[in-house]
Amino acid sequence: MSVRSTITSQFQQVAKEQDRTLAPLSDEMKLVQSGLDSLSFAIIVARLEETLGIDPFNAAAAVEFPVTFGDFVRLYEDSAK
Amino acid sequence: MTAGSLWESISAAGRPSARLHGTRTAVDLADLAHASSLGGRLEELRDRNVLLATKSQLAAALALIELDGVARRIVLCAPDLPAQHLPAVIRGAAADACVRDEAGPAVAGLGLATCVTAEPQLLRGEVPRRRSRATEWVLLTSGTTGAPKLVLHSLASLTSALAGAQRPAPGSVLWSTFYDIRRYGGLAIFMRAVHSGSMVLSDASEPVIDFLSRAAAAGVTHISGTPSHWRRAIMSGAARTIAPQYVRLSGEIADQAVLDALRSTYPAATVAHAFASTEAGVAFEVRDGLAGFPAALLVASGPLELKVAEDTLRIRSAGTAERYLGENVEPIRGPDGFVDTGDLLEERAGRYHFMGRRGGVINVGGLKVYPEEIEAVINTHPWVRMSLVKARRNAITGSVVTAEVVLTEDRQGARPAAEALTRELAESCRRSLAPHKVPAMIRIVPSLELSPSGKLVRPIA
After folding, report:
1. Which residue of B116, B199, B270, B404 is most buried, as measured by CB atoms within 10 A?
2. How far is B385 from chain A (nearest CA, A)?
3. Is B21 helix (H, G, I), strand (E, B) or coil?
4. pTM of the model
């Protein structure tokens, strides 16, 4: 599974578990308008570290916090390289 | 048994004969009248501060009986005490003598003037059992890091729970415990056995199945351990080897799942869970089969006083330790004489429930999570035997919680697949816990590590 599809399915899975309505996942969608709260993001980041083996937020170099869903995916894709 | 010495208690008129069962041999305590386990060297230890460092629990038990009332101080070392902490223990307790066995730690060069070898067999000969003092008892508590703390007790504080206790009919009580008797939980049982009855001693290197079959062969009637000890015993498939009348849990939170499991394993037994700590002593025991304890137990008068302050249990009793030994140590009791146990309580419908340790709180986005609360929910699932909830650092909320789960014995391959099971566990957590308490990840593991004291090993928060 690609990084993008892994991330997409985690967003969907966590939204379902947290009983939240997820906005359509386009690259332009702002994360604050995704319908997810910070606990949901925390769970997504933890699970992505488990499945992808990377946690860009905990990398040695400071990261720019992603604003849109596209930023979020790119952050992981760049870290995976 | 509040006055005198252990030996005086054993040799008291009317005391039925009692046996201590080790892994290979058993000793009749009455034989100590004309024999010694210390090779005729007891008098060399009179008025000394004696480090008791044997591997064998039987050797330790016999030495305790012989040394009490003779030595100035006995320092009880469990066999898992890391060798690097020995110098600090010796210094802190001002130890100047040692009783050890062949498998005990090396003590040469540690400044102990006298070193006596303990034997698990008795050497016949006349032993003047002259009591010259109230011996100080020093127990070690394993801190999360660093050297253990040295906790000063007396025979009176260690036996306070027995004051006024009726002696049962001769030969009717045979105690055992999963604990080592050099730890508070095990020592409390040893004191009961010396007061009334015999005892089967455990051994850290012995498989739980072998221990249970030894206890069964001896006819154990009363047995204690931590909830983790008991879960492990049930998982071994050998728990029903024994048929005790009385089963006791202490040292960790007894959740409803483990209480129910013991009730169904031992339908004829009284299942009691007790609160005790090395510093505070034995506080109370609950026999109604329910987790937590009735609010009515919080009584601030009489020989045992309990109260809740800043959400933690506070205890003042005759069983409380006197103080820590060593330099720069904090007091055990607060200014009001109460010990703060650090155990967090929450009241629900007239009953107090233990939530966890104050030091074990996990912070998820500013909200507090007690791992034990989540474990109690997970443990109620029929396929779960035990679980461990941990913090996992997280850039968004500081931490999230994750869970590791050990499943029950497979019943004829009827167990659902791992993925279905973890999904089901997560759903049951979501039904009964706030969202931040639901583990972000649940993993099935073959086993969970227990500390030498029989408690789940928790990562330092």
Report:
1. B199
2. 25
3. strand
4. 0.88
